[in-house]
């Protein structure tokens, strides 16, 4: 029996920023060709928008935007620009305007205005007005107003920036918890407030960081509060502690989407293959217990758990491996029990022998050293001749 819950009624747009924010972390650099390969793989998942990079920051990102803009057929693509002419013109020159979202990053907090930019509120609003207007004049129809550090900005500043951006033609507003400092109750409240400020046809997108381990929880709180879109990355890679993990967002909305009245149309069966490609390209090795992608998440070694799972996997498994391109693994180590031996006997079509079973348990299970384990298939191969001969 599948544990999948009822689907919510609201389709959430999925914005993948693996190639932009994901690349910003040390060790995650990607060539233009790598970005193209990953973009095509991510598009095949059914993602709505793929952020390719920051074209005015490097020739590589400029080349990547050109390549990806010509290759994608279903997903829209996005490029990042600051609120200045050079960045916006570079984005449009490389990516054109068809199916191209330009996300214009503006200064969303007084803290950043003072300590990062050294600009006044008036200058900030003027930049925003100029940048959105310029993008519109260049033919960009899909303009995103990215409010950097919005979670530390005052309501007064945020509302003024949003009103300015929308008046110039912005079609999406992005709330960024840039430092990952909010908890779900705070971020949900903020999202609901901003949702009440903007028209229903303006997309409200959220961008969460994982500095306190809450990027997914914050994104879900935002969805519950009315966000239309979540920005995420494969395996949660990104600046510092990373971003909302795409695979975890998909998992929650697959099984618990009814609680948020939300769903995505992602092909979750392809997620692990995309992760493997990313892992090969940037040398990414997640913790063994990483949800969805970790080596251990669909494996079991403990005898009590194995006894239940060999009867019915649902006894100790809620998330189904096949939904996410994974396989279930029963492993044999010193914590395993006799149930796994009985299973091998059954697989070999042999009657269970208590005395022989105890001997094999001591020889192949109890005596294993810490960290030493084999698969059931390997145990079956080892015992296929010795057990038959003994019986």
From TrEMBL:
Keywords: Amino-acid biosynthesis, Branched-chain amino acid biosynthesis, Leucine biosynthesis, Manganese, Transferase
A GO molecular-function annotation: 2-isopropylmalate synthase activity
Metabolic or biological pathway: Amino-acid biosynthesis; L-leucine biosynthesis; L-leucine from 3-methyl-2-oxobutanoate: step 1/4
Annotated ranges, domain Pyruvate carboxyltransferase: 12-272
Keyword Transferase on entry: yes
Keyword Isomerase in annotation: no
GO biological process: L-leucine biosynthetic process
Annotated EC: 2.3.3.13
Any Pfam family: HMGL-like
SUPFAM superfamilies, per the entry: Aldolase (SSF51569)
Record family assignment: Belongs to the alpha-IPM synthase/homocitrate synthase family. LeuA type 1 subfamily.
Name of the protein: 2-isopropylmalate synthase
Organism in which the protein naturally occurs: Lentzea fradiae
